Amino acid sequence: xxxxxxxxxxxxxxxxxxxxxxxxxxxxxxxxxxxxxxxxxxxxxxxxxxxxxxxxxxxxxxxxxxxxxxxxxxxxxxxxxxxxxxxxxxxxxxxxxxxxxxxxxxxxxxxxxxxxxxxxxxxxxxxxxxxxxxxxxxxxxxxxxxxxxxxxxxxxxxxxxxxxxxxxxxxxxxxxxxxxxxxxxxxxxxxxxxxxxxxxxxxxxxxxxxxxxxxxxxxxxxxxxxxxxxxxxxxxxxxxxxxxxxxxxxxxxxxxxxxxxxxxxxxxxxxxxxxxxxxxxxxxxxxxxxxxxxxxxxxxxxxxxxxxxxxxxxxxxxxxxxxxxxxxxxxxxxxxxxxxxxxxxxxxxxxxxxxxxxxxxxxxxxxxxxxxxxxx
Length: 376
Prior knowledge:
Number of domains: 2
Order of helices and strands: EHEHEHEHEHEEHEHEHEHEEHEEEEE
Helix content: 25-40%
Number of strands: 17
Shape: elongated
CATH superfamily of the largest domain: Alanine racemase
Largest sheet: 8 strands, mixed
CATH class of the largest domain: Alpha Beta
Distance between the termini: 13 Å
CATH topology of the largest domain: TIM Barrel
Strand content: 15-25%
């Protein structure tokens, strides 16, 4: 029996999104797209992404185990993250993953120590902080010098030199990521120009990285999800095709998460009560920030619709959850078709950072996730 709140994933939209990406990169040789699995690890979603031939970007040992269980090959796994534990590094080496994205000299030394103890050599890309800003929420900007991520550009040459001295390390390339939910293509152009500058410096030193990994960050349309269910991948990839100056034989890697799964998921919740308080009208639902934390955490806004009543008899509601916190609000002053107890509301564009970030605060049960194939 399906009980609310639960997530539902539109498998046809997911497949259409994946095909749109494949078409957009069809004429970009040596280009590889990885799915940033932190966005959603629903097993059925992972299965569809694996069948489409995408690689994986992981940021924890648990994610490596999840994608291996889902059937992804180790040689398609990039392992990023600013704080990799020893057991996670060991797991990556034992599995034979494609590459570690290294974010500091101490991390590089630990990877070398562990790899050497196993008689192995670990392939690494150095995550360089390009000091490129992104027009997005401050909590999801990652490419500024003030952020915790990556190696300072001024230290790049010294760290590459250190890689060459460490017996358990093979310098494979450079890795970048400037943030998430980015809709301004100029931000990606700025990243490309910075990479071009760094590559010019490497050319002068006779250093030729095999991989240039530009991360991800492409956003989705939270305001009008039904009009724009698939992001503008053509414009996104064209930025890199036209602005990034790759060297002969270099492989270009992308790591998209939200752009792949964001629009295919929605959170379904039931109205428990409609409460009037002065001029306010509250639709109190059985989902809370334990099920979808983005509005409470970032002030993010998701479109909400009443799927039990699709009429034009609109009224204004604050849609709120049952958690004992004032921040447990999905949105305020939402125009919905007249809503009553027992109606089902759909919170759209919840495929990324929804189910995966759910918690059991207040001892609540975790929401289940289903695909449209399962609920036919």
